[in-house]
Amino acid sequence: MFEITWLVVHVDEDVVTINQADEEDVFVQINQKFDLAFLGADVLRIQWSAGPEPNFIQKIVEIVDEETEEKTKEVRDFPLEKLTDIPNWDKLHQLIDTTLKEDIPPEPTLAEKLDMLRGVRSDLLQEADITILRFLENGEAIPPEWAKYRQDLRNLPSEIESGKLPEPTVVNNGSEYFPDFAIQFNSWPVKP
What pLDDT is stored for residue 178 in this prediction? Predict the structure, then answer.
């Protein structure tokens, strides 16, 4: 499940804002209609933080005047020690977890992986072009191993599509809920 370091719930607006527990400090605002009635009709707002910020549940409280017995409603903050003190915390946590899982992007397709590979290949081609230009500037012929290396780089996508080379894979440098896919390929041509 999603580990939360910061949570704000605006029950009246059906908005949940959370911060993922990682070094990136990923803030996520979930703007969709939730039925948050399970938190209680008197709950307006919840704020919780793993840090020094004040943690509270804001509720509407009915106040009865002892002399007139007149009833009024007032908004008050009640301290919150830990997340599990939130009414129906398990249900709220499950709602957040399910919503985030619905928004996880799928692993890149082969076409997307090839686009990522082409980006890395462009950098390698640029390096090879600089090396080849230096040979030409010095009046030297392009060494065959450099010409072959450059051509092998250019042929990579078609070699993969034809099945002659293995398909690139991706590694997730992000988290389960916020993936950051990077290309991983072990069949690059060997640089001379």
Answer: 77
Taking the C-alpha atoms of residue 94 and residue 58, their distance in angstroms, rounded to an integer, is 22
Sketch the domain layout of the chain as residue ranges.
4-102, 110-184
Give the mean model confidence (pLDDT) for residues 133-140: 94
Residue 124 has pLDDT above 90, yes or no: yes
Q: For residues 31 and 93, give the distance between their C-alpha atoms in angstroms, rounded to a whole number.
A: 16
Contact status, residue 117 vs residue 183, Cβ threshold 8 Å = yes
Length of the chain as a residue count: 192
Distance CA 45, CA 27 (A): 18
